[in-house]
Amino acid sequence: MNKYSFNQISLKQYIFIIFETQIGIGVLSLPRDIAKTAGKDGWISILLGWILSILLSLIIIRIMEKNPEYTLIELLSKYFGKWVGKSLSVFWILYAAFAASVVMFSTIHIIKVWIILDIRDFILMILFVIPIYMIAKHGIRVIGIFAELVFLVSLWMPFLLFFAFKDTHWIFLLPIGKEGLLPILSTVKSTIISFLGFELAFILYPFLKDKKSATKGIVIANSLSMFVFLMVTVISFVRFSQDQIKDYAYPTLNLLKLIRLPFLERLEITFLSFYLFLLFMTIIPYLYTAVLGASQLCGKQDHRNVLRILVCLWILVSFFFHPSSSQIIQIGKPWGMAGTYFAFVFPILLWIYGWLFHLARKEQKQ
């Protein structure tokens, strides 16, 4: 009997968790990030990043198919033994906790800058921690249900961007390939950081009810993210000049600021208020990965104690740490660098090692 049978998620929930984890902060800042290195050819880098993320996603699913009842933390101990496996697990737990922390403090900064200027960080932290804790403490099944709700709540958001088509200049995208091949390829690194989230399949796979559909699900999730990234980036590129877009920390919000509706002002504030749900859905899966991994590492069934410790640390840090825009960018860089290794390099090495491991076991049985 599957030990996770009472905490399973459907294929739809699996897709939504990965998709919503990916788009989070990336939707807001990606156009600026890729414009800095690839100019208006950055949309090509998104397509290349999408292809790369799908290939790595398929490798992760291939690894998990051989070990369907194991989460990554359990798998590492199986492959590498108790001490080496636990050491590698610690790095994964720290990576997930750091990713959740970066997005949490980035969210607080964005809300302060765009909506409530004078509020203290610790007040926002407490307000945000309450719903995040309430969802994460119930485990992956409730996270999956919340992911479905968030998808329905945010379904209208992409259509807002079509109002920004006024005064667009499609000539800004021409000539295609102006910057050359090298800048486009070097920018793929920035785009694959935005696709981070698919590596959570290492944790989600054992909870998936229909494991045969895992490949289809993760391809759909990556493709949905690619579509959103491509749409936001292209609209930003045809609305702003290359010099303009580099000056905006979050070009998507600046796009919304340009939209004028007869019945609503400051559309970006309304948008951000609902977008908080999506930001929470970037934080919660990484947070759950960290606390579940730490609990499994300690041999505990209940992850809530670790969860309480981590959210209390967040509240404590928020009393002393008040990051500026430049500091938010700086703490995001180590996450991107770590994500490159944990999501893109690690699966390849683990796949090769796992293939050798199972080959050796097969020969021993013979």
Structure in words:
The protein is mainly alpha-helical. It is 74% helix and 0% strand.
- Cα-based radius of gyration, to the nearest Å: 21 Å
- What is the distance, rounded to the nearest whole angstrom, between the alpha carbons of the first and last residues? 28 Å
Question: Which stretches are poorly predicted, pLDDT < 50 over at least 5 residues?
Answer: none
Helical element count? 16
**Beta-sheet strand percentage?**
under 5%
Q: Tell me, rounded to a whole number, the average pLDDT.
A: 87
Q: Which assembly state applies to the chains in this document?
A: single chain
Summarize the biggest pleated sheet: none
Order of helices and strands: HHHHHHHHHHHHHHHH
**Global outline:** globular
Number of strands: 0
SSE class: mainly alpha
Q: Give the proportion of residues in helices.
A: over 70%
Summarize the structure.
The protein has 16 helices and no strands. By secondary structure, it is mainly α.
Structure keywords:
mainly alpha; 366 residues
Which helices and strands occur, and which strands form pairs?
Blueprint: H1 11-23, H2 26-38, H3 42-65, H4 72-80, H5 82-114, H6 121-136, H7 140-154, H8 157-160, H9 181-194, H10 201-204, H11 214-239, H12 242-247, H13 251-258, H14 267-297, H15 304-318, H16 325-365
Helix pairs in contact: 1-7, 1-11, 1-14, 2-9, 2-11, 3-9, 3-11, 3-16, 4-5, 5-14, 5-16, 6-14, 6-15, 7-14, 9-16, 13-14, 14-15
